[in-house]
Design a protein that fits this description.
Elements (H helix, E strand, L loop, with lengths): L13 H5 L2 H10 L2 E4 L6 E4 L2 H8 L4 E2 L8 H5 L5 H4 L9 H10 L4 H5 L2 H15 L4 E3 H6 L1 H11 L6 H12 L8 H28 L5 H10 L6 H14 L2 H15 L2 H9 L4 H11 L9 E3 L3 E3 L2 E3 L4 E4 L1 H4 L34 H18 L4 E2 L22 E3 L3
Parallel strand pairs: 2-8
Antiparallel strand pairs: 1-2, 3-5, 4-10, 5-8, 6-7, 9-10
Helix pairs in contact: 8-10, 8-19, 11-12, 12-14, 15-17, 15-19, 17-19
Length: about 400
Amino acid sequence: MTDQVVPPSEFYTDDFAADPYPAFARLRQDTPVCPVGGPRFDSYLITRFEDAKVALNDPRLSKDLYGPEQHYLRIFGPNSEGLNKNMLNSDPPEHSRLRQVVSQAFTSRRIEALRPRVAETVDNLLDKIIPQGQSDLMHDFAIPLPMMVICQLLGIPETDHERVLGWTQVIRTSGSSSRPPEEERAAVQLAQLRLHQYLTSLVQYKRAHPGDDLIGALVDACDNEGKLSERELVTTTFLLLFAGHQTTADFIGNATVALLTNPDQLDLLRTRPELLPSAVEELLRFDGPLPVASPRIATEDVEYQGVHIPRGSIVGVVINAANHDPAQFADPDRLDLSRVRGPHIGFGHGVHYCLGVSLARMEGQIGIGALLRRLPGLRLAVPADQLRRLPAASPFRGLLELPVEFTT
């Protein structure tokens, strides 16, 4: 084991973006708690499964980026607080209070009631794709599907879906264009501003025109129950909007590529569609959309694997490295849809376990199942190593484009 500090640039290469798993394997083996040095702060990456589970539920590793030390300024910049001060970036008891407000909307029973609507949305999107014989599945399917579902759940008018999607995609694809960095930052900040202004005005509209949707329920929790402040109302709406579609979109894209590049597993799922629920879990373990959990702050000196992590350090739990840990999963780099379901941490662990897990699983099962059923001969239109991905510096693992062909 080495205590050498790794520069962040090691993880910002095109090769790493294409396939980070060899680098993750080296970290697990040689530096399971890896110091990463940078000009603004020092951070540590935790890569082994058991350490990752402990860290994700360690109260000494705080999610509150907006406390007195204002860590968010170092990480996200001064314009982030208007959208990011929410339950994702908070600790109990604040986190518990905020999570309780929205948890009733994400019960398994309520989500299961959405199944017919999700299936209809999937079929409508595929009806537009099928006559073409080819598609960019990210643009035509993987991104709009969860966006439409979460917008319907929140109560965002259909006439606004396109521009809301536009703002979120500017944020999602940050760093992927050829524009100068200062122009890229300005574009992202403008998209954040526009989205914040839109959600603020939408909340006011819902206040004047109550409806049977999630934003309406949040307004009621703010105005009549006193469970949310006005700012928390807007930031919670943003979190549900962004988290409700971003990771699911990237998951569907990653899962499709994994299946198309593992034809034996693709054939297995076509012939045994009853494997879909377990297949979604294995595909999430194999190449999840959130490689590193959102950052944590060490509120005191802590130690993992004999490595001293000083108070104030940023700690990143590398979910995708932990989910390929051979100490936890046999032959972890092999996609095995018949694998006995193991306790992967693709949805997190502990108090911050993904609130929308039931919705994400359902969208994945319906979406992937329909792709295989309705697009015969589905195949990549370019070699897998030519697929354009989000930049390595992105917090998400996903595709910019997914060109495919199929038989009509």
